[in-house]
Amino acid sequence: MPKQETSIIPNEVIVNKIYLFRGVKVMLDSDLAELFGVETKRLKEQVRRNIERFPEHFMFELTKEENEILRSQFAALRHGQHSKYLPFAFSEHGILQLSNVLKSKQAVEVSIKIIDVFVQLRTIVLSNTEIRLEIEKIKKKVDNQDKNIEVIFRYFDELLEQKEKPRKEIGYKISKEK
């Protein structure tokens, strides 16, 4: 695999290699191997040799169903064309641990860049959450205004109904017989 310089790897490339499995943002072993400049087979070997460093929340193997879903999302992936083994999925912490296991300068640099991208994504999500909370506050105010406007219109309707009822004339009546 050709070595990539980490400063050349755009953030978008990393973001496009982040998937959501089991409610966790992860990167797959093949994508990480490419970014780290090693073969996927070698990456998996190192993980298996140091499996005690990778608890379930750092790394897990995709199930057959998850792998099929992944394959179905990418038409380019055909059966038999890629690894016959199920891919490993690494969380943010697993990626950091992976750089400790691989120990190459490129692995360390790339993992730092990947962690930075994860942090940026988390910041974006948090800022979006703050925006959503503000929008919810505005919606509640608008909902209350809608209710107030409804009450006002109901009062107007009641007033209009009251005016429509004929009133009894009061005062002297002048007869027209004269």
Order of helices and strands: HEEHHEHEHH
Structural class: alpha+beta
- Report the sheet-strand fraction: 5-15%
Low-confidence runs: none
- Ends: how far apart? 120 Å
Largest sheet: 4 strands, antiparallel
Q: Which outline best applies?
A: rod-shaped
Strand order of the largest sheet: 1-2-4-3
**How many individual helices?**
6
Description:
This protein has 178 residues and is α+β, with helices and mostly antiparallel strands. It has one domain (6-131). Helix content is 58%, strand content 8%. Strands 1-2-4-3 form a four-stranded antiparallel β-sheet. The longest helix has 60 residues, at 105-164. The protein is rod-shaped and about 120 Å long. The termini are far apart.
Write the layout of secondary structure elements.
Blueprint: H1 11-15, E1 18-21, E2 24-28, H2 29-36, H3 40-49, E3 59-61, H4 64-73, E4 88-90, H5 92-102, H6 105-164
Antiparallel strand pairs: 1-2, 2-4, 3-4
Summarize it.
The protein is an alpha+beta fold and 178 residues long. The radius of gyration is 33 Å and the shape is rod-shaped. The chain has helices at 11-15, 29-36, 40-49, 64-73, 92-102, 105-164, and strands spanning 18-21, 24-28, 59-61, 88-90.
Descriptors:
178 residues, alpha+beta, four-stranded antiparallel beta sheet
